[in-house]
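Q: Sequence in, structure out?
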Amino acid sequence: MQTVTRLLLICPLLICLSAINGSAQTISPECAPGQEQLKAAEAAATQNDWAGAAIRYQEAAQVAPSCVEAIVNLGVIFNRLNQPDEAIKAFQRALKINPQLFAAHLNLGITYFRSARFGEAKEALGNALKLNPDHLQTRQLLALTLIGIEDFKEASVELEKLIKVMPPDAGTLKALGEVYMRLKRYPDAITSFEKSLQLDPKAAKTRLLLGEALDNSGQTDSAIQEIQRATEVDPQLREAHYALGHLYLKRSNFDLALAEFQKELELNPEMVLARFQIGKIYYQREKLDEAIPELTKVVEADKNFRPAIELLAQARMKQGSFDEAIALLERATTLDPKWPNAFALLGRAYTRAGKREEAKKAFATAQKLSADERKRLEDAVSKP
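A: Exactly. Output:
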């Protein structure tokens, strides 16, 4: 008995692909003319010789043009070679020969997914599920695809289906919790994260997410406890100390908040938001010599961070550096020409610098923008 070539497997993210046929079956008549090339291709793939395998599968597909096994495997090899466009062509070619080929639809969906072409991935994976509705890994990848296109409602539906039929899985429960967070279904998110942690108690990131869900549910004390536990499990966990700082700010505990933001910067020096909060706390404490360097770094790192620009301008005004404050606020007004506060602050800076006419214009613009915004809100409220 001669054996049919097995489909090679790729395992992006959560799933591995399945073969078209088992590995101990008679070779199909369509593939018989290319059996020697198929054997050579499989041998090359066994040695991780992807380029050699690609050549042999191409040869097999030339002598046996209806051999979908060779064509699909060729697409898988192209993925190994990081040639997604060629892989897509191979899977589409296989589907022209056999539109009911589950493995080709699935491989095509995976390739689109890995290329962040989520709309096309959704279609391909949906076609795969029509052929094999019980294939859990395909449904899992479809849920991730729906998250990729930010269709969180449908993603929750798919993940809920998975939870009901598959063995308990911490990763799937975590993903469902994150989707619930995006849908603002915080009690459901808490439940999903707690179930995930029962399966994987040392998952620090999941515990951080649980803390955020508790915070959004108004359970600040419990949120702090969970995020503190997350930092104990993983002292290097990024964003956890920032989240703790945010929670301490809500409780007006500025000393603890400042300490947490500083810890975040030690772990994550590029986190602009943590540095901004540090600068803001120093500013509120009238520690301008410490606030200004921090806020300056924020503005240098993110030239479009308007709140930091405005706060730095206010610090410069308190310091008496009116020209620098004016330059910053003029920049802020260009970033958001409809934001009245920037123009009001600019008017104050012009006034302090003795530029009365410029100040009048800035204040007039601020007043007009405020009136326009007030009218917009009134119109929105009055609509049925």
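Confidence is low (pLDDT under 50) at residues 1-25.
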